[in-house]
Specification:
The protein has 739 residues and is α/β, with parallel strands linked by helices. The protein is built from 19 helices and 23 strands. The strands form 6 sheets. The protein has a 7-stranded mixed beta sheet with strand order 9-10-7-17-14-15-16, with helices on both faces. Strands 12-20-19-18-13 form a 5-stranded mixed beta sheet. A 3-stranded mixed beta sheet has the order 1-2-3.
């Protein structure tokens, strides 16, 4: 087993299905979801679909607790939140629980992790299941100890009677099963007794990310793993005319060229060998590529001309825009890409009968079903195991690269094959967010109130996830079966799709809100962060500002006049208060209120505002050392702790330039001296680094070095100092600077 895979078997680092062997041997009970049919459960999130408690909670005879979830940790923190929910109701320390999430080999089918639904559906189910498991354990303990349940106390997985006798959870489950159907009357611990939920609790996933441990699917390295790259055609409609792969197959490290109709890939021993072979294969391939994309400068007129399914979302009071001064505005949103930090990646392994894909999809079961459809395999012979990806909110290329991994793994049985998309793959082939148009018209009455509101919206789909349809996996378009084109769908309100948030929350007497849903996709589009929500909110709120201006009314006051709902009013008033809205009226001409801060970096102490000096000290001196103190425990005993300073912080060398900035960096240097002095036995290297005058927003274009030139020098310098105890003030060349 590789070091990467060994690292994934810890509780907080579970990545792949190999650790599930432990889960089976510990629990010793099959999960209820494997049954062909499920009885209807109580209305507590996904407990309604999967009512058996051992579908959610497992306890073995040693007292080890496992919590199962079909949701995925995408960086939003749900793994930690689920853990808190279970620990609260089981009355155990969170550290006593192992979380297993999102795998078709073991976990429930909770669909997609999307739409901010995980807490409502997944956490609610875990919360209630844990409470009912605790109730069952209390009942068993009461029988064994011969006392009433009300006399028992629970703490850290141990149930104690008034006479001091006790039973641990592990003792109580011996010879018993938790294959019990949930009821609609769980004995929940009340909120005023919470000790874990609602409290600050460290995220399970953050520490390893901060120190660069292998946690993402992009980091996976398995024994005997091969690497693949895919040759994409010039555009969606291209057809492969010919390809001579003979020379590519003889290139160093190349194992196989995969050629299936219009699908072309190369598998090699090394990753860079696969990249080189892919580039050569691109040159060897001849394509017929019809022009199918519209003029990029003509997208919005085209959007209005395309065939649309038109429906009225809201029509009140006649919906008429009549009389008075009619204001109107139009708002547009172009195609948008997810542009994930790490291009999509997946690993596939086919043993001749069973296919396993390690993937950062947001829905392991929908992807499993779709890959099975694409390859004409039985669903129960395909497994998808979730591994966190480096950056994904929405339908990016995670599902597509999972399909690539499946195709090339089947072409090379009995070896894991890793498919890493290139940056051009990610940006050129991922599903984008739909372009949109919103047109608003409105009128005001004599009292400055909105008397008419007309809003018209054009959008394509925001939902073309796989969901069992191979046509919605881009690689499947080019296989011999020629699946496609992709099929979109609409999500009805209130969740909505392109029409999400198109109906304002304001009280409007006359409204006419129309949605033009366009099925055609010149470029593939799907779910992207809040779907059509933020475009509609932007358009609605921008138009409210236009109307407030026409009414000669403060924008906040104008909104409050149209908000009868007290909760909505409270939100607007609190936001205005926190933002300092009322203070903005007293600012001098040419000034406004903003969330950002621009500091007087080059000002002298005689001219700089006092607050600028204080902010500079906080950001440049106090905060870095405070962060070092907070995270110092995650640095290895022989590791390196470094703070980025500046040569201007040297009192010896600085002749009196950049008063505020230099003072803050000198303060940072002093605080690092204090930090080191307080830890005389700490053997880690500590550095105050002056990287030089760098071409940044602060440094300016006339600076000596670019960021790209500086980073390798700093990295080499940090490496040289590894394991050298003590504090040094050095530049990027590892030369010691005078304090």
């Amino acid at each position: 087993m590789s070091e990467m895979m060994k690292a994934t078997l810890s509780r907080r680092g579970f990545l792949a299905g190999s650790s599930l062997v432990v889960g089976f041997s510990m629990l010793g009970v099959g999960l209820a979801w494997s049954a062909p049919a499920q009885p209807k459960g109580p209305p507590f999130g996904d407990l309604k679909m999967y009512p058996y408690l051992d579908s959610w909670i497992g306890i073995d005879e040693t007292g080890a607790i496992t919590v199962y979830s079909g949701k995925a940790e995408l960086g939003q923190g749900v793994e930690t939140a689920f853990l808190q929910c279970a620990a609260e109701q089981l009355v155990v320390d969170p550290e006593a629980i192992t979380m297993l999430m999102a795998s078709t080999t073991r976990m429930l089918n909770e669909g997609y992790t999307a739409g901010s639904d995980s807490m409502m559906s997944g956490a609610t189910a875990i919360f209630h299941a844990a409470a009912q498991v605790r109730g069952i354990l209390l009942g068993w303990a009461a029988n064994e100890l011969g006392v009433d349940v009300a006399q028992l106390k629970v703490d850290k997985g141990v149930i104690t009677a008034p006479n001091g006798q006790s039973r641990g959870y592990g003792d109580l489950v011996k010879g018993r099963f938790l294959h019990v159907q949930a009821t609609s009357q769980p004995n929940l611990i009340p909120p005023d007794q919470y000790k874990i939920v609602g409290r600050n609790f460290p995220r399970l996933d953050i520490p390893r990310k901060l120190i660069g441990e292998p946690i993402y699917v992009q980091d996976m390295r398995m024994d005997n793993m091969a690497h693949a790259r895919i040759v994409r055609p010039p555009n969606y409609g291209s057809t492969l005319i010919s390809v001579d792969a003979a020379a590519i197959e003889k290139m160093p490290g190349v194992i196989k060229v995969v050629h299936e109709n219009n699908y072309l890939a190369v598998i090699a021993e090394g990753e860079y060998q696969a990249v080189l072979a892919m580039r050569a294969l691109q040159q060897a391939a001849q394509w017929r590529s019809p022009k199918i994309l519209p003029d990029k400068n003509n997208i919005f007129p085209l959007l209005k001309r395309m065939k649309a399914d038109t429906k009225v979302l809201d029509h009140r009071g006649g919906g008429a825009i009549t009389g008075g001064n009619v204001l109107q505005a139009a708002y547009t949103r172009p195609y948008m890409m997810h542009a994930s930090i790490g291009p999509s990646c997946a690993v596939g392994l086919f043993d001749g009968a069973r296919l396993t894909v390690w993937t950062h999809t947001q829905g392991v079961y929908p992807l499993r079903d779709t890959i099975a459809n694409m390859l004409a395999m039985p669903q129960d012979q395909v497994d998808c195991i979730y591994v966190e990806g480096s950056g994904c909110y929405g339908h990016n290329a995670a599902d597509d690269v999972g399909a690539d991994a499946a195709i090339v793994a089947v072409a090379l049985p009995n070896r894991p094959v890793r498919v890493q998309w290139m940056r051009e793959d990610e940006h050129g082939w991922e599903p984008y967010g739909s372009p949109m148009i919103a047109e608003a018209r409105g009128t005001l009455d004599a009292n400055g109130m909105i008397s008419g509101w007309d809003y018209e919206l054009w959008s394509m789909t925001f939902m073309s996830r796989p969901a069992g349809k191979a046509a919605n996996l881009m690689p499947a378009w080019y296989l011999p079966a020629q699946f496609g084109p992709p099929q979109g769908s609409q999500v009805p309100l209130p969740s909505g799709s392109g029409d999400r948030n198109a109906i304002p929350t304001y009280a409007l007497p006359n409204t006419n809100i129309v949605y033009h849903y366009i099925e055609e996709m010149p470029l593939r589009v799907s779910a992207l962060r809040s779907l059509g929500g933020y475009m509609n909110v932007f358009a609605v709120e921008s138009f409210m500002d236009e109307l407030a201006l026409a009414a000669k009314t403060d924008p906040v006051a104008f909104r409050l006049k149209h908000l009868p709902d007290q909760r909505s009013r409270d939100v607007v008033q609190l936001a205005a208060e926190k933002f300092g809205w009322s203070d903005a009226k007293t600012l001098p001409p040419g000034h406004g209120r903003n969330a950002g801060i621009s500091k007087s970096i080059t000002a002298t102490l005689g001219t700089a505002p006092v607050q600028d000096f204080l902010d500079m000290m906080l950001v440049n001196a106090f905060s870095p050392v405070r962060l070092i103190e907070i995270f110092e425990d995650i640095v290895a005993p022989n590791g390196t702790i470094a703070a980025m300073s500046s040569e201007l912080g040297s009192i010896t060398n600085n002749e009196g330039r950049w008063d505020l900035y230099a003072s803050s960096k000198a303060a940072l240097d002093m605080l690092m001296k204090c930090y080191t002095a307080h830890r005389p036995d700490d053997r880690r290297a500590k550095l105050v680094v002056a990287p030089g005058w760098i071409q940044t927003e602060i440094g300016g274009a006339e600076a000596t070095f670019t960021v790209e030139e500086c980073i390798p020098l700093v990295a080499d310098m940090l490496e040289k100092n590894h394991g050298k105890a003590g504090l040094r003030y050095v530049d990027r060349f590892d030369e010691t600077l005078p304090w």
